[in-house]
Amino acid sequence: MGKFWNIGGWKNKFEQWLKNHAWAQSLWNLMPHKYLKRLDYYIMAKFLGTYVFAIALIISIAVVFDFNEKMDRFMQHEAPWNAIIFDYYQNFIPYFANLFSPLFVFIAVIFFTAKMAENSEIIAMFSTGMSFKRMLRPYMVSAAIISIVTFFLGAYIIPKGSVTRINFEDKYYKERKTNTARNIQMQVDTNVVAYIERYEDNRKTGYRFSLDKFDGKQLVSHMTARTIVYDTLHANHWSARDYMIRELGGEREVIKRGNRIDTLIKLTPDDLILMQNQQEMMTNPELSEYIDRQRARGLSNTKEFEIEYHKRIAMSFASFILTLIGASLSSRKMKGGMGLNLGIGLGLSFSYILFQTVSSTFAVNGNMPPVIAVWIPNILYAFIAFFLYRRAPK
Hints:
By secondary structure, this protein is of the alpha+beta class. 62% of the residues lie in helices and 18% in strands. It has a 6-stranded antiparallel sheet with strand order 1-2-3-4-5-6, with no helix packed on it. Helix 6 runs parallel beside helix 11. The protein is elongated, with a radius of gyration of 28 Å.
């Protein structure tokens, strides 16, 4: 590692660059490099190198199979090659790489640690007096790097790319978005409830519309309209056609009728029509804002969005748990080689992903709180990691 670092004077160039950038120097001083030795960098290079190699290998296979499956549809809809490459696969690769990041972490740890054990490198480390806990330090630092990167990508970068990818699929492969919705009732403002019997997104038009305003529990205004049309040029602007407004004030009732009236309603077509997997196209701040807005409107269709929000955090912490499991499993030299360890590791990693999917389904279809459903796999596998850690060679 030291020889590689000094090739071409990279170390001197890097140190000079740090001196010229105060912010980089401050950040570098916060890094745990002062507590890491050459052996730690060796293990980190093995870990991160194997992790990147596993991602490149599996995602390459996934791209080949995906293109083979969708090629006919792409050709049928005359999808241009630049759109296939840059709009679809450029966003397809980071999405699935981040989605299966725990699997890649597990494979990487199992593979290179078992290889080190087979070559008696771990025995040599222990013979110098190094403890298993000390050996885990570069593993945890590497897991922290992967965790931070995967969270940042999943929370802020990949959702933006998913918009482009899913729009491409809608246009050239298979449309996911529904264009109609029925029997929509929601709170659009404080003490204001809207109802639309049917909404057509291609026309931005709702039919049999009503808007009720309350003062406490008392109805003070009731508006009905045959149709209501959204103004795409101005946010929250609607045009009601063939309307009637009833103003209720004590014993008096004032009725207004007309052919058209423009009104401001805190409601957009995006609130009425939900695309499949729409939560994947929102960044974490957008998810949080959407969940709060829908709750304020009295809607209960936020579970999938809450699951996505908490899953991004839980998946980041999974890197630490699965790294500990992988290192504990494969650090012992076994007569049969790494095959058994690799098989057990793959089984545990796939069971983790399956368990997470099942628990998320319970949250969507049952009464389990999303945050608990998302964190249950992490909690269970944390106990497994602790058990394997206790049994690992010390």
